[in-house]
Amino acid sequence: MVQNTSPIQQVQQQPEEGLTFRKLLSIIRRHWIAIVAFLVVGTAGGFIWSRLERPAYTSTGTMLVSYDGNTSVSTEYTFSNYISETYVKVIKEDKVMDKVAEKTGIKSSILKSNTSVNAKSLMIEVTYTDTDKAKAKEICQTIIETTQEVANTVDEADKPVYHLLYDNLKVFSSASNGRAVSHTTRDIAIGIGAGAAVAFLYVVVRELLDNKFRSKDDIERLLNLPVLAGIPEYHFEDEEKGGK
Questions:
Q1: Phi, psi at residue 80, to the nearest 5°?
Q2: What is the dihedral of CA 173, 154, 99, 92, to 10 degrees?
Q3: In angstroms, rounded to a whole number, what is the distance separating the alpha carbons of residues 222 and 209?
Q4: What's the CA gap between 177 and 141, in Å, rounded?
Q5: Is residue 102 very low, low, confident or very high in pLDDT (cuts 50, 70, 90)?
Q6: Does residue 90 contact residue 150 with C-beta atoms inside 8 Å?
Q7: Does the global pTM surpass 0.70?
Q8: Which neighbouring-strand residues pair with 127?
Q9: SS3 letters across the chain
């Protein structure tokens, strides 16, 4: 027995299509001017902000880890390399930063956020960033010297407190003069991201508020009615030329 199904029931049985690639392209095509405008404004805003924000300067100094245990060169190198990883963590510890804060009058939390430490083999690179180039150099040098002081701490009996760190850290190069840091690329990237986010929200809101039928599929899906025929759009030649 064959059961006949009406056109309306056939439409109701059809599953709704999600956001296809074709629909996405159609949405972008309808709003491309607004999307480009938001991206251009975001890019320009990021560039302008990079010119208005206060300049930043970085100062860098290096320290050399040198362990002398009266053993083979390979053993000393291996142990020195191991200690260098320890120093990377020690430099930003409260034990060091609190003393630097006492010397400079800057909060320990600010010192930590503006300080970066990298280990390259036996070399430890300390970098400090500040809006004042002279201050950046001064604080960077203070961090290096304070780290060395903490590592070489001795007790009342004049014995090393940190045996593995004692007398193993040497200043290789003092803090350099502050060098200007450009944030133009970062600010432009943030501006483009903000512009893209605003453009996305704009398109979503416009699409949610749009109640127009753009195709026969929309009519069949939303009204559950079959489209039997349509009137094609046609432009007469004389109308295109301005005639009646």
A1: -65, -40
A2: 60
A3: 15
A4: 10
A5: very high
A6: yes
A7: no
A8: 60, 116
A9: CCCCCCHHHHHHHCCCCCCCHHHHHHHHHHCHHHHHHHHHHHHHHHHHHHHHCCCEEEEEEEEEECCCCCCCHHHHHHHHHHHHHHHHHHHCCHHHHHHHHHHHCCCHHHHHHHEEEEEECCEEEEEEEECCHHHHHHHHHHHHHHHHHHHCCECCCCCECCCCCCCCEEEEECCCCCEEECCHHHHHHHHHHHHHHHHHHHHHHHHHHCCCCCCHHHHHHHHCCCCCCCCCCCCCHHHHCCCC
What are the backbone angles phi and psi of residue 108, rounded to the nearest 5°? -60, -35
* C-alpha distance from residue 105 to each of 37, 59, 108, 139, 150 (Å): 47, 18, 9, 10, 19
Provide the token pair at 134. Answer: 């002279």
Residues 6+ positions from 8 with CB-CB distance below 8 Å? 224, 225, 226
Per mean pLDDT, which range of 55-69, 96-110, 201-215 is the poorest? Answer: 201-215
Token code pair at residue 215 = 């195709």
| Tens-place pLDDT, residues 39-68 | 999 999 998 888 888 888 999 999 888 776
Q: Give the residue among 113, 199, 96 at the shortest CA–CA distance from 151.
A: 96
Picking from 82, 87, 194, 189, the residue whose alpha carbon sits closest to that of residue 146 is: 87
Q: How far is CA 173 from CA 14, 30, 197, in A?
A: 74, 60, 45
Of 74-88, 95-109, 118-132, 230-244, the one with minimum mean pLDDT is 230-244
Answer yes or no: are the C-beta atoms of 87 and 120 closer than 8 Å: no
Q: Where residue 130 falls among pLDDT bands split at 50, 70, 90?
A: very high
Average pLDDT over residues 144-158: 88
